[in-house]
Amino acid sequence: MMIETVRREDSKKLGKALRMLKWISVAPGVDTKTQGRLLDLSTRGVYRYIKDLRKLGIPIKTHKHAGYSLEHTDILSVINLG
User: Fold this and answer.
1) Residues of the chain with pLDDT > 70: what percent?
2) d(CA 43, CA 35)
3) What is the pTM of this model?
4) Which CATH architecture has domain 2-77?
């Protein structure tokens, strides 16, 4: 039962991270507040997800007052899953 719960929580987090990545790639400039609304996250939560995605090697740029964008369009080539 505990393993099922952990997997469900991990699955939700992964889903939110992928949706965030999608928004950043298809709509560069979406700001933190809007990302939070779209993904049902607090501002702090958005910052955590951005940090985690960067740890995976995803090159996310922050633009002051203009949200986020990707440095590369081919992100699969730069993700560090190992």
Assistant:
1) 79
2) 8
3) 0.75
4) Orthogonal Bundle (1.10)
